[in-house]
Amino acid sequence: MAPWKLPLLVLAIVVSIVGAFLLGGPGVGVAIGALAAVVLIYWAARMRPRGGIGEAPDPQLRRRLLVVVSRPVEDPRTTATIAGEAGIDGRRDLAEVMILAPARIGFLDRWASDLEPARREAQETLVISVASLAKVGVVAEARVGDEDIVQAVEDQVGTFAATEVILVTATDEEDPHAAAAAAELATRLRTGFRRLVVEDRPEPGDVGADGPVASG
């Protein structure tokens, strides 16, 4: 969060609480105050240091490829690109591969503390992605990560010690959250980083892309 936003957030909360007391009485004021406390706790939990993520790759160690998927990996061009990065074509040393799917939690599910739908969706993404990559020779482990893509990568890099990270996303227009995460990862990751943008498959007769557009 930008430094100037926090004072505005606190001011908005204070004004809301005072207004609730004046217009609705103590009961409404207390309820609004409790809600404001939840909001502040949530923002505090989401704020994190903006230092580097991971360690610079050691050329003496085996390559470890972390593939973060915000959407299922299933089209031939994306799987072939990842297979190449994993060294399946023999052009590079073989890499140990981990597939990570962030559990993208919806607003209502978050407030209802209902995390199961997001986890099921992430698991389905993993099943599709792992199966598609297995067809081109990539054997990978799979895990569900934090809802925040950057936090999920930071958590996983700490245990998996990835030497390279690939982020598979939809286009910026389809998934602006993933686009913002990609921009942050590009500046904070100390490992190699590459983003694969996969556009939706066009309907018959439509003009459009059907594969990844590499960036980073």
Explain what you see.
By secondary structure, the chain is α/β, with parallel strands linked by helices. The chain folds into two domains: 5-46; 64-215, Rossmann fold. The chain is built from seven helices and six strands. It has helices spanning 5-24, 26-46, 76-85, 107-111, 116-134, 149-160, 176-188, and strands at residues 64-69, 96-102, 140-145, 164-169, 192-198, 212-215. Strands 3-2-1-4-5-6 form a six-stranded mixed β-sheet, with helices on both faces. Helix 3 (76-85) links the parallel strand 1 (64-69) and strand 2. Helix 1 (5-24) runs antiparallel to helix 2. The radius of gyration is 21 Å and the shape is elongated. The two termini are 24 Å apart. Residues 107-112 and 202-209 have low confidence and may be disordered.
Record the SSE blueprint.
Blueprint: H1 5-24, H2 26-46, E1 64-69, H3 76-85, E2 96-102, H4 107-111, H5 116-134, E3 140-145, H6 149-160, E4 164-169, H7 176-188, E5 192-198, E6 212-215
Parallel strand pairs: 1-2, 1-4, 2-3, 4-5
Antiparallel strand pairs: 5-6
Helix pairs in contact: 1-2
Shape: elongated
Number of separate domains = 2
In the CATH hierarchy, what is the class of the largest domain? Alpha Beta
Tally of DSSP helical segments:
7
Under the CATH scheme, which architecture of the largest domain would be assigned? 3-Layer(aba) Sandwich
Strand order of the largest sheet: 3-2-1-4-5-6
Low-confidence segments, given as residue ranges, are 107-112, 202-209
Cα-based radius of gyration, to the nearest Å: 21 Å
**What is the CATH homology-level superfamily of the largest domain?**
HUPs
Average of pLDDT = 79
Q: Classify the secondary structure makeup into a structural class.
A: alpha/beta
Q: What's the CATH topology name of the largest domain?
A: Rossmann fold
Number of strands: 6
Strand portion, in percent? 15-25%
Q: What is the string of helix and strand elements?
A: HHEHEHHEHEHEE
Estimate percent helicity. 40-55%
Main sheet makeup: 6 strands, mixed
* CA-CA gap between termini: 24 Å
